[in-house]
Amino acid sequence: MEKKIIKNFQGYFEEIEKEVNKAIIGQEEVVKDLLIGIISGGNVLMEGTPGLGKTQMVKTLSRVLDLSFSRIQFTPDLMPVDILGTFLIDKKNEEFNFKFQKGPIFSSLILADEINRATPKTQSALLEAMQEQTVTVGNNIYNLPQPFFVLATENPLEMEGTYPLPEAQLDRFMFKLTIDLPNMEALSQIMDLTTTERNENLDLRKIVGKEEIMEMKRAALKVPIAAPIKEYAIKIMLATHPRESQLDIVKNYVKCGVSPRGIQSIIIASKARALSKGRFNVSFEDIKAMAYPCLRHRIFTNFRGMSERIDPDNIIEEIVKLVK
After folding, report:
1. Taking every annotated instance into account, which residue ranges of this chain make up the domain ChlI/MoxR AAA lid (predicted)?
2. Of 68, 95, 136, 283, which one is least surrounded by beta carbons within 10 A?
3. For residue range 219-229, what is the model confidence (pLDDT) as tens digits?
């Protein structure tokens, strides 16, 4: 099975991508990165204004990957028990017992919709699930199904009624993807798909199942990486820290740099990207491409950076260009 997956990894990847793009128009690069994030076993945060198809993208992906799916709509009044589950009184044969009622978190693919509209207390309920893939309720620890992914959507912080995600939770996301407005041609195709009967007749095939996804993840982890390429990824991470970096853009605008989790994410994602391109080794180009989704939510600008609207992508671009 494993040899078959490694041999056909690129074929599986392209089939999944092709099937998802039947329903999602104009977001080809986002779909690629989303698939790499899932195959790498990470959680993905997607940011964009409402109406750009973030929710539809995740729902489509669950159908194509044949995974159990739960959608959690985050609102200010959502409580942790609404996500994790709670104990209920169960009466049987005149006896009362407590029975644990599992929440929607107990699925393989979780859509945390508009995650930054909930309060920090509720957002933090996902921390253990995202990192340890377990849930603690009372004195009991429950294992989550495998594979397990949280795909979260968030609105830009400039929009009303949003709460910024704490740094500790942001670091649990492997990727952060930005969803932009499609171009004129893509918008025309979206109108043809969504305002005609074609949308009702859209038939999506199930390309792989949970076993194949787990095998693809294991195959990606076995891809070798040369020492100079690994050192390059480490240099990129160190260059994000004001005390370590020699770059003016970092010293002037960055408050806090990337944690070691950032390097882990870049290397694992680069391995999956290499296999998706039909290669069995990681290249410098893989590291550069994966630096953006892996680091943009882990670089925090200082007051000067925020006031001058310096975007983390601008900082990553300079780092990738100048670090040798």
Report:
1. 249-319
2. 95
3. 888 888 999 99
CATH of the domain at 121: 3.40.50.300
Does some domain include residue 191?
yes
Q: For the chain, how many structural domains are there in total?
A: 2
Domain hosting 238: range is: 223-324
37 and 182 fall within a common domain: yes
Q: Which H, E and C letters describe 158-195, residue by residue?
A: CCCCCCCCCHHHHCCEEEEEECCCCCHHHHHHHHHHHC
Residue holding tokens 């740094």? 167
* pLDDT tens, residue by residue, 19-67: 888 777 777 888 888 889 888 888 888 887 777 677 778 888 888 888 8
